[in-house]
Amino acid sequence: MNKGELVDAIVEKAGVPKRTAETVLSATLEAIVEAVAEGEKVTLVGFGSFESRVRKAREGRNPKTGAKMDIPETVVPAFSAGKSFRERVGGADAGDDEE
User: Within the chain, where are the H helices?
Assistant: First the structure.
Protein backbone atom coordinates (compact mmCIF):
# COMPACT_ATOMS: atom_id res chain seq x y z
CA MET A 1 0.00 0.00 0.00
CA ASN A 2 1.36 3.42 -0.91
CA LYS A 3 0.37 6.83 0.43
CA GLY A 4 -2.36 7.33 -2.19
CA GLU A 5 -3.92 3.97 -1.39
CA LEU A 6 -3.74 4.78 2.33
CA VAL A 7 -5.57 8.06 1.69
CA ASP A 8 -8.26 6.14 -0.21
CA ALA A 9 -8.61 3.71 2.72
CA ILE A 10 -8.98 6.64 5.14
CA VAL A 11 -11.67 8.18 2.92
CA GLU A 12 -13.56 4.88 2.91
CA LYS A 13 -13.24 4.15 6.64
CA ALA A 14 -13.72 7.68 8.00
CA GLY A 15 -16.14 8.98 5.40
CA VAL A 16 -14.22 12.24 4.94
CA PRO A 17 -13.40 14.05 1.70
CA LYS A 18 -10.21 12.91 -0.02
CA ARG A 19 -8.57 16.34 0.35
CA THR A 20 -9.21 16.27 4.12
CA ALA A 21 -7.78 12.77 4.43
CA GLU A 22 -4.63 13.80 2.48
CA THR A 23 -4.16 16.89 4.65
CA VAL A 24 -4.63 15.03 7.94
CA LEU A 25 -2.34 12.15 6.90
CA SER A 26 0.41 14.51 5.73
CA ALA A 27 0.17 16.58 8.92
CA THR A 28 0.28 13.43 11.06
CA LEU A 29 3.35 12.06 9.32
CA GLU A 30 5.09 15.44 9.45
CA ALA A 31 4.38 15.76 13.20
CA ILE A 32 5.80 12.27 13.84
CA VAL A 33 8.95 12.97 11.79
CA GLU A 34 9.52 16.32 13.52
CA ALA A 35 9.09 14.84 17.00
CA VAL A 36 11.42 11.90 16.34
CA ALA A 37 14.00 14.22 14.72
CA GLU A 38 13.98 16.27 17.95
CA GLY A 39 14.65 13.12 20.00
CA GLU A 40 11.11 12.59 21.26
CA LYS A 41 9.36 9.23 21.36
CA VAL A 42 5.91 9.10 19.72
CA THR A 43 3.65 6.37 21.12
CA LEU A 44 0.33 5.47 19.53
CA VAL A 45 -1.25 2.97 21.93
CA GLY A 46 -2.19 -0.24 20.16
CA PHE A 47 -0.25 0.73 17.04
CA GLY A 48 3.35 1.27 18.07
CA SER A 49 6.15 3.68 18.92
CA PHE A 50 8.44 5.79 16.79
CA GLU A 51 11.79 6.90 18.22
CA SER A 52 15.36 7.66 17.28
CA ARG A 53 18.09 5.18 18.15
CA VAL A 54 21.85 5.47 18.12
CA ARG A 55 23.61 2.98 15.89
CA LYS A 56 27.09 2.42 17.32
CA ALA A 57 30.23 3.02 15.30
CA ARG A 58 31.50 -0.17 13.74
CA GLU A 59 33.96 -1.57 11.30
CA GLY A 60 32.74 -2.48 7.84
CA ARG A 61 34.12 -3.53 4.50
CA ASN A 62 33.96 -1.87 1.12
CA PRO A 63 31.97 -4.36 -0.98
CA LYS A 64 34.00 -3.62 -4.13
CA THR A 65 37.51 -3.77 -2.69
CA GLY A 66 37.05 -5.67 0.54
CA ALA A 67 39.06 -2.96 2.32
CA LYS A 68 38.21 -2.32 5.97
CA MET A 69 36.51 0.96 6.74
CA ASP A 70 35.16 2.68 9.84
CA ILE A 71 31.43 3.37 9.86
CA PRO A 72 30.70 6.27 12.24
CA GLU A 73 28.02 6.32 14.93
CA THR A 74 24.72 7.55 13.54
CA VAL A 75 21.18 8.24 14.71
CA VAL A 76 18.41 6.37 12.87
CA PRO A 77 14.61 6.33 13.11
CA ALA A 78 13.04 3.18 14.56
CA PHE A 79 9.53 1.75 14.89
CA SER A 80 8.35 -0.82 17.41
CA ALA A 81 4.95 -2.36 16.79
CA GLY A 82 2.49 -2.32 19.67
CA LYS A 83 0.97 -5.48 21.16
CA SER A 84 -2.35 -5.18 19.30
CA PHE A 85 -0.54 -4.61 16.00
CA ARG A 86 1.78 -7.60 16.53
CA GLU A 87 -1.15 -9.84 17.49
CA ARG A 88 -3.20 -8.78 14.48
CA VAL A 89 -0.34 -9.41 12.05
CA GLY A 90 0.95 -12.59 13.68
CA GLY A 91 -2.39 -14.16 14.51
CA ALA A 92 -3.82 -15.00 17.90
CA ASP A 93 -0.80 -17.10 18.91
CA ALA A 94 1.83 -14.45 18.07
CA GLY A 95 4.52 -14.37 20.71
CA ASP A 96 3.36 -17.54 22.45
CA ASP A 97 6.06 -20.21 22.57
CA GLU A 98 4.06 -22.66 24.67
CA GLU A 99 1.33 -24.90 23.34
Answer: 3-14, 18-37, 83-90
